[in-house]
Amino acid sequence: MSAADALLIFIDDRHEFEGWLRLSDGAVVERGKGLEALPGLVDPATGAPLRVAAVVPGEAVALHWLEVPAGLTPAQAIAAARLVAAEVSLQPLADMHVAVGSEHVESALRPVALVPALAMAGWLSRLQGAGLDPDVVLPEPLLLAPPAEGFSRYHRGSTPIYRGQADAFSVEPELAELVVADAPVQEVADEAFEGGLAATIADPVVNLRQGAFAKRRRWKIEWSLMKRLAALAVALLLVTLAIQIVSIFRYTFEADRLDAERTRIAAAALPGISAANAADRLGERVTSLGGGAGYSALASGLFAAIQGVPGASLTAMAFEPDGSLRATVQGETPAAIPLVQQQLAAAGLSVLAGPERSSGGRPTADLTVRAQ
């Protein structure tokens, strides 16, 4: 579909559907009154959606060319235009919808349209109720191209529309004489008017569908983007898998290296023992000297006993060469230490308590813990 293909819906001053035109390659190929025999919203040749433009009466829209600062975002341009338009608007700006046209390098003036917000809401409500959601809402006078000088005039309905270089309006002939004064006026024929519609719709001077009345874009799936994201996800998964595989190999190699180092150290510590049995024999030797599993069993039993008595705490601990565990235990009350002894005995450990003393105002005793 080219920019010269569009469907124009005309709304009259009573907010009724006056008629429609369908453009194809810039020419009017179909027309109708009201919404009778309205064509589909897709191009029958290509299946692409038609550009829908709603044309609203010029009497309802005030058009001005005002100095709006350049280089602003659309929202900033609208806010700046509201400030400038407050000086020329006959109605309170709070009740008005303000739309701003594009800026041009050759001119510091930008077209600004003022329309009652209720009227704009009413037009869109009527259109959307008929299944139409226009891309462009354009005041009727802006369907005319500006002449080189003076004004262009077209008698389309009961009220003619006028267009100048920095003017566009629709008023009764008596009032138009006051506005036009002595400026030359060029009449526009039907053929010329319809021949210029494609250009004005493709690049509207001011599209009223902006700000609060901007067309909401429908979310759609971009399959090309989805394919790229899927490929990226697969690549990320493969990289993650590769990292995991490399980590597994690294851990395996490191474990083998540590095992070999343990065997080497054990063989050096126990000369005369084969390398295959050296590590196991060294573990047995450590256990027989009071370390290894003996220490672990005693320490875990002691910790469990102290944790099971409220207020009991461990202040010192030492593993003796004879395989016993010597611990200094404190309690909040004198009954705490006997309770710790009971917990140790219940765990199957032998405990011998030294004389009880006071340390920092708390009862304290040295316990010697052995396996039974």
Structure explained in plain terms:
This protein has 9 helices and 17 strands. With 372 residues, it is of the alpha+beta class. It folds into 3 domains: 208 residues, Nucleotidyltransferase, domain 5; 64 residues, no CATH class; 83 residues, Gyrase A, domain 2. The strands form 4 sheets. It has a 5-stranded mixed beta sheet. Strands 13, 14, 15, 16 and 17 form a 5-stranded antiparallel beta sheet that branches. Helix 6 crosses helix 7 and helix 8 packs across helix 9. 26% of the residues are buried.
Please tag this protein with its features:
Gyrase A, domain 2; five-stranded mixed sheet; Nucleotidyltransferase, domain 5; five-stranded antiparallel sheet; 9 helices; alpha+beta; 372 residues; single chain
Provide a compact summary of the structure.
The chain folds into 3 domains: 6-213, Nucleotidyltransferase, domain 5, CATH 3.30.420.380; 223-286, no CATH class; 289-371, General secretion pathway protein M, EpsM (Gyrase A, domain 2). Helices cover 35% and strands 25% of the residues.
